[in-house]
């Protein structure tokens, strides 16, 4: 519910600032792509690095 209120507030704010609908949708698409990149690629890679560091520290 809070995210819905935040989304409505941001769209209202963008319209008040004079930012067009195309720019809003472009921003939402870019934000979604960044989220997908972080969720599916970056976080597992960081987890592998952390596990590798722990194994290196345990073996050493």
TrEMBL record:
It comes from the Bacteria. Keywords: Membrane, Transmembrane, Transmembrane helix. The chain crosses the membrane at residues 30-59. The keyword Transmembrane helix applies. This is Uncharacterized protein. The lineage of its organism: Bacteria, Bacillati, Bacillota, Bacilli, Lactobacillales.
